[in-house]
Amino acid sequence: MSAIARSVRPFASRVLSQKLPLAAACRVSPVAAFPRGSVRSFSQSPFMELKKYTETHEWVELAEDGKTAKVGITEYAAHSLGDVVFVELPEIGLEVSAEDPVGAVESVKSASDIHSPISGTVTQVNKILDDKAKAINESPEGDAWIVEIEVKNAEELDRLLDAETYKKDHATD
Question: Where on the chain is N6-lipoyllysine found, per UniProt (predicted)?
Answer without folding.
Answer: 109
